[in-house]
What we know:
Layout: H1 19-30, E1 33-34, H2 46-58, H3 71-85, E2 95-98, H4 100-112, E3 118-123, H5 127-135, E4 139-144, E5 146-148, E6 151-153, H6 156-162, E7 167-173, H7 185-197, E8 201-205, E9 230-235, H8 237-240, E10 248-251, H9 254-264, H10 273-282, H11 287-310, E11 314-316, E12 323-327, H12 337-348, E13 350-351, E14 353-354, H13 362-365, E15 368-372, H14 377-392
Parallel strand pairs: 1-13, 3-4, 3-7, 7-8, 8-9
Antiparallel strand pairs: 2-10, 5-6, 9-10, 11-12, 12-15, 14-15
Amino acid sequence: xxxxxxxxxxxxxxxxxxxxxxxxxxxxxxxxxxxxxxxxxxxxxxxxxxxxxxxxxxxxxxxxxxxxxxxxxxxxxxxxxxxxxxxxxxxxxxxxxxxxxxxxxxxxxxxxxxxxxxxxxxxxxxxxxxxxxxxxxxxxxxxxxxxxxxxxxxxxxxxxxxxxxxxxxxxxxxxxxxxxxxxxxxxxxxxxxxxxxxxxxxxxxxxxxxxxxxxxxxxxxxxxxxxxxxxxxxxxxxxxxxxxxxxxxxxxxxxxxxxxxxxxxxxxxxxxxxxxxxxxxxxxxxxxxxxxxxxxxxxxxxxxxxxxxxxxxxxxxxxxxxxxxxxxxxxxxxxxxxxxxxxxxxxxxxxxxxxxxxxxxxxxxxxxxxxxxxxxxxxxxxxxxxxxxxxxxxx
Length: 395
């Protein structure tokens, strides 16, 4: 304390250490299998790693790259959006490279949200959303996805009722972390209609765009009247399994890109110069790469989901992402996901993440626990064996 005040800004005082840092440290301390934090345990394509090495050796990006990102990457991002979604963006004025999707979210909210503005977010939400809204001085308004028939569903009436004269924007994540929900064309049509009617901006976090197992990923920006009011965010980490590179981007209209750039330039300014050249090559991989990625992760999803069900968990099999949400109540006597996850490493040598930390309404998320399946098959098989042993010993 100095001058009678806490050192930490009061906007951030409620957040503390992220649950990912806590649970990953617990995994290391106990020697447990870490199915908590969402990072793969193998690197992505060798040719992409070698592209980064070539860029380093050639001196490409070793000094400050251009503030908006290297032209090769911005062009590749625009080509990716056109090829996969028939969305046309000018790489010079409508694409901005960021230090991962996390910075893209932070810069976008800092740029677009004024103190007192309301930001609607689908609950449960990735934890940085709450912190970024708070840093911008906005007010978070959660709309809860609720379990229904083995999945989590959005109540469109609840979403519409959440909009007030103070609402500035809707923050969407589809495919959705942690529930694995993929918003349907019908749901996105209603969201687009609501945004146009109420003159709202929409920020869409689409980092799991290529990890869809059922249904399809449809960018909101592709709907009528939405391109000029939508900031679309994605990144290389989840698609290409190089999460440590932290190369993300936004695509949006020039006015929106300029607004976000104004905030982003005072955060990292630039980052990952040589890696940007490698990601440009990654985005030009053939469609077969994305097909194989999806098919391999679908098989891992099924392996872990089946194992969790056999161990007694209630399983919500995800339509996308690489996380499966489970309900611990069928295990008998379990209600508190946070306590369950903190005890799980000692009980069976597996780490998971409690979903309650992603909720404002903690009671809604209390019995749900998230496991990541973006790991090697042998690791998942060992985790399943350990979890079944937990069930066999009386849970």
